[in-house]
Amino acid sequence: MRSTCIQETTDTQIATLKNIRMLFALNPESTLIRFQIKFTNALLFTAKATGQLEAIPGLELQLTQLYQAQKALDTIQQGLINKARLELQTRPIALVAQN
After folding, report:
1. Are 32 and 62 in contact (CB under 8 A)?
2. Contact 49, 41 (CB under 8 A)
3. pLDDT tens across 65-83, in order?
4. Which letter does DSSP use for residue 52 in this model?
5. DSSP 8-state symbol, 1
6. How far apart are CA 40 and CA 67, in angstroms?
7. Which tens digits make up the pLDDT trace of 52-62?
8. Stated pTM of the model
9. Which among 48, 66, 73, 93 would be 20 to 30 A from 13, CA to CA?
10. With contact defined as beta carbons under 8 Å apart, do 37 and 67 qualify?
11. 52 contact partners, CB below 8 Å, separation of at least 6
């Protein structure tokens, strides 16, 4: 029984760690998107302030696409967090059910 508990605990930690690693692997992409949003906002502000009206629609479109990419990435990140949380919640239940 003790070795089963140790093995199940180890398996749970490994499964959870995989999700956490995938989550952290997305950090550079998340950081890049945030930077691109700030930079594009600065360009849009400059275009409006200097009267470069022809640049505004393209920059607004680019911002929309960046916000969509950010939302999609957030959905992936939330999925990984939920998957890790589910692993932590259901594995102990499975162990109890076996005994």
Report:
1. no
2. no
3. 999 999 999 999 999 999 8
4. -
5. -
6. 11
7. 999 999 999 99
8. 0.77
9. 73
10. yes
11. 46
